[in-house]
Specification:
71% helix
Length: 273
Amino acid sequence: MNLNIIDSIYYWLVNHPKIVNFSWSQGETLGSSPLFLTLTVLSYLSLTFLLSNLSLPLLPPTILKRISAVHNLILLALSFTMALGCTLSTFSHAPHLHYILCLPPKTPPRGPLFFWAYIFYLSKIVEFIDTFLIILSGSIKRLTFLHVYHHATVVIMCYLWLHSSQSLFPLVLVTNSSVHVLMYTYYLSCALGVRPRWKRIVTECQIVQFQFSFVVLALMLYFHVTHKGPGCAGVWGWCFNVVFYSSLLALFSDFHAKNYGTNGKMTVPKKVA
């Protein structure tokens, strides 16, 4: 019975024909054109700016909580599935562990690993709904530069993973999806009326994630420079990731310091008369 369950999981997450035969083809695969990427990011930024500056009628709290609960549940399940699917695909289809950190140059973006990179890319567009729920709740103060910058830029990063066959993306995908399981569990609990006391842990896990990303980025550079042969695929994507992660680490660290202070306790802003 247990073997049947494991076989079923592998079939639906790794060996299904749609997954095994997946291929990213620019201009043919849904969302693969540079125009789609540009319009998606610009539309998100424009709508966010426009809606946040309009006096929109707010959704009733009951309806908003129901929508938020469904949204967070979907992203929680999707994050868990992506983390598991990419992990199983890595162990099943990576020829060796070195492959996880350094894809050979001109590696075609096809197969299970790139299928989950594609699903991850699309999921980041679905996460735009986070922003619009914040606006419709009237909590404009939660709509920080960090929030909007992160949501807009991470889509570009995921596109580059696929476009350039970015090395080491499986590790980043699994760690990011795992952190999002924790994050969306927290937000789902809040939407259901239970506010956990471990919000700080979510932020700290995100900071650790970015610190870990620098370690694997350094390892990729080491393999690219020292490994005999043509090096690793996706070096330009690597450069983008270094800049992006550096900015996120700085912004998240600043957010952590402002919200939790040096004593680790959440700060309460003073009431302005």
